[in-house]
Amino acid sequence: MKSIRRYLNITLAIVLFVIIGLAVTAAYYITRHEMEEIFDAQLSVQARIVASLVGVHTSSDEYAMIARQLSQPGHFARWFDPSHRFTLNPDNSNLYDDEERVLSMGFWDAMGRPILMGARWNEPDRAFPAPDKTGHRSQSYDGNLWRVFSLHLKDGRWVSIGLRETFQSELSNKIAMGNLAPLLFALPILFWLIAHFVRRGLNPIDQLSRQVEARDEKDLSTIHMWVPRELEALHRALNDFISRLASTLERERRFTADAAHEMRTPLAAMKIHLDNARHGETSSLDKAYQGVERLQRVVEQLLLLARLDISDERPAREKVNLSGLILELVADIWPQAEASHQVIDVGDDGSVWVLSNRTELGILIRNLLDNALRYTPVGGEVAVNWGGETGFAWVVIEDSGPGIPDDMLDLVKQRFQRNANQHISGSGLGLAIVVEIAERQRITLTLENRPVGGLSARLDWHDPSI
């Protein structure tokens, strides 16, 4: 469908044309049927009237007078006398109405011999066929089809009155054309009205399109305009999309600004240390190396956050052996803990299975373990425990560090937000990555301070399928 307007105009015009055609056709056949019934009734009534006026004692002069009255110009009626046949001179015959040509009547005796034949039923070589039963019938005569009503009288005679059926057809056609002509005259007006109202009905779509088209890439305000009920869902969806887009762009601008600020600090420090190293302070090389490591960590976390933001689809989930994954991650960071004389206490609760994406879950738990080790002082302890039952699983990572002020527990989950009292270097992205992955994996993350000191990070799965 290339154009809704064109589709509606063409479809409605075709439907209107078909409906008018069906209506006229139905009216034609209904009218024809009703007219046949009316004409049949009139023929039967006229036959009864004529039968009551002509009897056994009707004289020859009376038959001759009837024949004279039934004669038409060029076609004359005849009275058949038992002894001889009279031929009437039709010079004085006339018509009071042209439709008289389609009517005729006749009389027959009990033997079926003609007594009197009206005009149109009295050809020189043969008369109209005699009836054989009372009632209506259709009869062909002289190339025409007649609708005839015949009545059998008590004295044995027959009387028939007929109407040429072409008259009914012509009259039905005239009535049908009389009904069709105004509709044909009104059809262009109806087509114009359809096009006008379709254009008017689709005008809100054009207005909405013009509003969207007139905006530049910086205008992300919501669309305020009246729309009909059918466009409310589209209007609402557009505004929701604009709001999400504005929020995303604002988040990206803030992310870019924060990332630039966060990278500027280690770069500036590295430049200073390298300048010092050029002037002979060899100890500055170690500090520059630490700056490179910090910068590398920031870049890696920025790339990971960018990948998570770009990916709209949730990754495929599978059953993951939680205990096995934790043991692998602890083994990877064990050298880091030994270098700081830290102890990692690993629980032994057996195998626990969860429904998650193994790669993202590994990044989530590794970030929590890395944060716990980095904020735990030298000689401190990090404890990792897990457990679960049908439909439920959990992981708790606890450290012996300084913890986080209560008013900062929610704030540190945001990007580039860190505890102001901490002296440990960092980018403020680790927990933001944890929060992002937890939402994608439908995991509940809870951060709280331990009564004995340090921070507790808890992960909870509530899934009937595990």
Give a description of the structure.
It is a single chain. It is built from 9 helices and 14 strands. With 466 residues, the chain is an alpha+beta fold. The chain has 3 domains: 4-174, 2-Layer Sandwich (Beta-Lactamase), CATH 3.30.450; 229-308, Helix Hairpins (Orthogonal Bundle); 315-462, Heat Shock Protein 90 (2-Layer Sandwich). It has a 7-stranded antiparallel beta sheet. Residues 420-427 have low confidence and may be disordered.
Give short descriptive properties of this protein.
single chain; 466 residues; alpha+beta; Beta-Lactamase; Helix Hairpins; Heat Shock Protein 90; 3 domains; 7-stranded antiparallel sheet; 5-stranded mixed sheet; 9 helices; 14 strands; 18% strand; rod-shaped
Total count of domains: 3
CATH topology of the largest domain: Beta-Lactamase
Order of helices and strands: HHEEEEEEEHHHHEHEEHEEHEE
SS strand fraction: 15-25%
- Level of helix content? 40-55%
What's the structural blueprint in terms of helices and strands?
Blueprint: H1 4-53, H2 60-70, E1 78-80, E2 85-87, E3 103-108, E4 114-117, E5 135-141, E6 144-152, E7 158-164, H3 165-201, H4 203-213, H5 229-278, H6 283-310, E8 318-321, H7 322-339, E9 343-346, E10 353-356, H8 358-375, E11 381-389, E12 392-399, H9 430-440, E13 444-449, E14 455-462
Parallel strand pairs: 9-11
Antiparallel strand pairs: 1-2, 1-4, 3-4, 3-7, 5-6, 6-7, 8-10, 11-12, 12-14, 13-14
